[in-house]
Amino acid sequence: MALLVPDEGEAAMLELILAEDTGLRLYTNDKTPAEGDGTADYTEASEAGYSAATLTGGSWTVATATGTTSGTYAQQDFEFTEAATVYGYFVTDSAGTTLLWAERFGTTAVLGSGGGTISVNPSIELA
Predict the structure, then answer these.
(1) Top-ranked range on mean pLDDT: pick from 1-5, 100-104, 123-127
(2) Distances in Å between the alpha carbon of 118 and those of 41, 92, 121?
């Protein structure tokens, strides 16, 4: 028999997972996230102006709709003061040593020589 996690269990699990502070980081290598990945598989942005963001535990919104439970966080804006090419974001534990999840952008973000802003809406789903 297959394991079933009901909606209320999904919500409780996500709230536990998202209770701790995590790091939101942008990556610059042409990478599609895969099951066996770790933090070493992602090249964190290092261009001028960039810095990782801290996602404060407990500040996520958890909601369930039609069998899928999601956690969403307020938009995070990353400022660059020089050219950058960013393929996606990855989320780590607060120490930056454990990869929690990663997402490649639908469209690669390419900033010209003057830099610019890349906005990310962090989210995670359980279905």
Answers:
(1) 100-104
(2) 21, 19, 10
